[in-house]
Amino acid sequence: SETEPRSHSSADIPAWAREWQRKMFDAGWLLPANPAEFGGRNATLLQQFVHLEEMSRRRLYHSYNPQGLNIVVPSILSFGTDEQKHRWAVPIMRAEKTASLGMSEPNAGSDLAGLRTRAVLDGDRFVVNGQKVWTSGAHDADWCLCFVRTDPDAPKHKGISALVIDMRTPGITCRPLPELTDPEYADFNEVFFTDVLVPRDNLLGELNRGWPITQGSLGHERGMLWIGNASNIENGVNALVKLGQELGLQDDTRFCDLVASLYIDGQAVKLLGYRGFSKFARGLPATEHALLKLFSSETERRLYLTGMETLGADGVDVDRPGPSGWREGAWATQYLRSFSGTIAGGTSEIQRNIISERVLGLPRA
Questions:
Q1: What are phi and psi for residue 25, nearest 5 degrees?
Q2: CA distance 230 to 244
Q3: pLDDT tens for residues 349-363?
Q4: Distance CA 74, CA 77 (A)
Q5: Of 206, 229, 253, which marks where a domain is finished?
Q6: Annotated catalytic residue: which of 221, 246, 298, 349?
Q7: Is there a catalytic annotation at residue 221?
Q8: Domain limits at 155?
Q9: Which of 54, 61, 154, 306 gives 159 a disulfide partner, CB atoms 3.0 to 4.6 angstroms apart?
């Protein structure tokens, strides 16, 4: 496979990070609401939520393979057989294997039901042909939870199946997509499947009944993703306050109004998340998740823009310390990267359409 430039994703996970995740699994703190055999301690979903929120607030990461742990694993635990749970989910949770998520395609991003990657059942195996894009960590992943079309004659929301594909299978080519903010860094990928043979045993759930799995995967992603967004906003506002103090802006009415507005929006994200989580935990539809995806990503973008503009010309210095102490910590870099949050998982425009139709009940234009 084409694997240059090198990724900072799954293949580069340091030994200490693997050991950290494994220790959490063994102690029952990886996903506390799970049974002990799956890295938990039979905690309530509320207890798990509090645990994840505190971890996120302190920037303590559960995993360097978030797609695998937060999306792929819950999908396997929800729809897989006992054998599949132990074959795939446990090694991912113990940081022994990594997984990516094969959803988006060049012509099926926000409209996932329009996916065209084909899987034809031939005896005891599927033959897969097609393309995925924006697949995080695919070129270093061991497995890919890939959504494919197995019945082209069925309505587009039907005839979809979920396969767990070994990424070392012949016929798979990964093309990393370097980022403008760091050309040496590539986490997103295009993935091409050419006559890839996948055992029938790698079918997750029922044949042609993969759509509920896609919704479950997105539900797991959006049901918990906002926790990180809320923490980013909280930490970012605190960094903005510190920046204002350093620049002597305590009495600058405009600056103080901007900070106050961002603080209020950050609290709104958190409270909206709490309300959505209370429904999610009871198995109820949580329309708040669509609101959160839109509101939190737009708030983050506005936050980093405010920090960059507050610094003036210094704001475009990507080497200047910013709200985060890591590789992407500068205000300018965070601002540029914040646009991805308004695209990944459904663009802001699509989220507005979803809110209009499904939450407000407005007719299609």
A1: -60, -50
A2: 21
A3: 888 988 898 888 899
A4: 5
A5: 206
A6: 221
A7: yes
A8: 101-206
A9: 154
